[in-house]
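Bench notes, afternoon.
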Amino acid sequence: MKRKLFLNYLLCIGVTAATTLPSCAAGPKRGAAAPQPGGKQAVAGGSLTLEEAIRLALHHNPQLEASAARKEAAVGRAVQARAWTNPALELSADDVPTRRGGLSQSKNMAGITQVVPYPGKKSADRQIGAADAAAGAAEWRLSRAELVREVKIAYCQVQLAERTATVAADLVRVADAAATAAAKRNAAGEIALQEQLRAEIQLEQSKSEKIDAARQTAVARQELARLLGMPDLSAAQLTGAPDESGKLALVHGAASAILAGHPAMVAARARRDQALATVRRAGLEPRPDVTVGVAAGRDGAANENQLAFRLSIPLPLFDRSKGKQLEARAGLREAEADIAATRQELLTAWRSAVASYQAAAAQVAAHRERILPKSELALQLVQTGFDEGKFTFIDYLDVQRTTAEVRLAYQKKLFELNSARAELEAMAEAAPAN
């Protein structure tokens, strides 16, 4: 009878531990994620603004999703760092008779043991986890800002490729008309054969350039589709014109103030804080964690209830964690050096982007205000003079080619201007915490 009561007692303890401890350790369940806005099918064959492209990329880009997962993993590590180790359920039977009686005549005990960390260790673990989570959040913000920058550049690249293709198509039409006219004039004896051949060669070159422009357009659209997480953008119509003003107040801001909150700097400082906490944790590593236990049971032979207390303290005689402390101090030096290197890299990138933007703005203004009008005027004058017999056919073809090259150069300078703008906006807009 006593043996059955004791077994029931042990069973109750085991069931209680098995059902209570896991439920206490479990965290709250996360709610279902809100459905992300799509719009892929509508965009595939319709119009696409830059704002819509950025929104699609933020919701569908797999690299940004991977960065968000890494941020969430860092939060999980921070949560786990706050938890103590689980207590252990211990069952023991001492002085069990081998001939008769069995467990009913032995000392049967059931208890709980818990490792109590040395004061300061869990605090350091929490600091390490919090710094890791802060670094993960900063790195996600950096990934987000870089994705927005890449989308802006890719969007402008598609526009540049399409305008280049338009210029190439116009050049083919002009060259085809010129080759046809040259053939008629040569047949009439008005121009020499070499001038006709020159026109035909330019026509073939223009056709080749048109094919290359179409290929570049397809490649640019594929890159934009990749950033947006979409399979195809070949039929989408990009709306909106690139910036041609060259006036961005951001270039006059103080770089140090703008970059102080940049995610790269925030992440570097978080890694430094994590390294500081790791140094502190390594210094506490030799300090022993105490294992405390309490057990209750019954001595069947003496017919008495018993209570036992246990205390276990490891002796740090051989392992003083010298290697961990050396590693932690080296990690701290690395983190401090990384802060200085990140600051220098950001300042260099900022100054380079400002210089690129200002140079591109000046070149765009020069093309728009002086070079393009003069090239168009020169083309009109040469065409009029050619019709009046004042210029040769080769002169006329050369001016046509020069005008087309000026138009293409203007588009390239627009792309450089908007690329530099995207760089500056990415560095400035990433700084405020979201």
